Predict the structure.
Amino acid sequence: MSTIVIQTQGLSKHYGDFVALRDLNLTVYAGEIFGYLGPNGAGKTTTIRTLLDIIRPSAGSATIFSKDIRQDSVKIHAQLGYLPSEMTFYENMTARQYVRFLERARRTSCMAEAERLAQRLDFDLNRSLEGLSTGNKRKIGIITTLMHRPPLLILDEPTSGLDPLMQQVFNELVREVQNEGRTIFLSSHNLNEVQALCDRVGILRQGELTDVESVDKLTRLSFRWVHLEFAEAVDARAFEQLSGVSHLQADTTKVKLQVTGDMDALIKLAAQHTICDIRVEDPTLEEIFLKYYGRDNA
Ligand code: ATP
């Protein structure tokens, strides 16, 4: 049985009549990369800020490393790295001075690790924090979140503002953290990022956790795209009538469709014709996401 790192029970946050987070029951295990996915305004930041005791829950409770988020927030903070979605700095410092400042505050020495991370992210620690671009702010944020090698990382939209090359470096850094048995909780509305990086994903919609599933299973079990090419023209309507088949597009000898569940009937029907080619594609997480959320949030 895996060790539980984050556990919430009925965690809720109201602003007056508005419910930003409703009855959240969530478990994150040691050593996993957990993706917290939802559209803008879904309640991702609210969840994170509540877990970090920056804001207080209206109801419910939560633990991190089996410690209560409210009673033991100081002890919890000593064990985590938090990257907020927006970074603000004292701008009259260089990045190196900022690292020194955090070292003193945390009473740990982490300059060597900061140098290593800066090199990986192609960032010069001698730069002033004044007037940094969004991407460079994000880089110094990642460096200072990881440099003390905390057992838990809580990252709010970690790659916003990073170019694709740096996103790749970020993914490598996060995987290295995981390989050391540490735990990562990251919020995102970037589906590709979650698909590429996370083991499990929780989908949040309008303050409610609608599903928690392994990324593998979501990708495999939901539906697949099937592309068929025949030697002769076929009547595509026969395919449309099969159970589990939808989104059919046909062009005399070519048929493209979505199939949910097993493919036995589809393969048997296709085999009544001469098949030139058959291709089966897993959906992207984005397609799964749109299916979950329906057209209203597309
Ligand atoms: P994004 O991806 O855009 O950052 P999010 O999923 O992080 O979105 P939250 O920032 O958690 O969403 O916001 C959830 C909802 O709570 C939003 O509708 C937001 O407007 C509302 N909200 C957040 N803070 C407050 C506040 N202090 N007062 C009133 N409403 C708030």
